[in-house]
Design goal:
Number of domains: 1
Number of helices: 5
CATH superfamily: Ferritin, core subunit, four-helix bundle
Bound molecules: fe (ii) ion
Radius of gyration: 18 Å
Structural class: mainly alpha
Number of strands: 0
CATH class: Mainly Alpha
Shape: elongated
CATH topology: Ferritin
């Protein structure tokens, strides 16, 4: 069952999840201004979710007879909230893509498919959430810049 391509694919995912732990933690550390109140804990929660996924995938790689990686990719960081949200959407979309690819390799092992599908659902929720946060309505735009919404004269 433990084929090399699958373990390699899971290790790429693990690397991505470790990247998420660092990237979201950093975002929560450095966010400043009014929106810190909301987004510091939002990003911390996402770092914890990445850690939870890393733990699941690392344990699974070991169970399959592989060696889990302990490295990560470069993180993206910015003090501009909108940019951080864009990085986050790209991060979650990449995770969806990676778990979808792993699912192809996991067939026909049913329990592994279910295991990966559960995580894939959470990654898709991340995509949906960041897509909504980035939706460009005038009110959202004004509030993101920290300026009050002005009435048009
Ligand atoms: Fe994840």
């Amino acid at each position: 069952m433990a084929n090399e391509a699958l373990i390699d694919c899971l290790n790429e995912i693990l690397k991505h999840e470790w990247t998420g732990v660092a990237q979201y933690s950093q975002a929560s550390f450095i966010i400043e201004g009014l929106w810190r109140e909301v987004y510091a804990s939002k990003f911390e929660g996402d770092a914890k979710e990445s850690f939870r996924h890393a733990k699941l995938i690392g344990d699974k790689i070991a169970a399959l007879g592989g060696v889990p990686v302990a490295t990560r990719n470069e993180i993206k960081q910015s003090k501009d909230l909108r940019e951080v949200l864009e990085f986050s959407l790209a991060f979650e979309a990449k995770a969806v893509e990676m778990y979808t690819k792993a699912l192809e390799l996991a067939e026909p092992h049913r329990s592994l498919v279910v295991f990966l599908e559960d995580i894939l659902l959470e990654e898709q929720e991340g995509v949906d959430e960041y897509t909504k946060l980035l939706r460009d309505t005038p009110a959202a735009h004004a509030s993101m810049s920290g300026e009050p919404v002005r009435k048009s004269s």
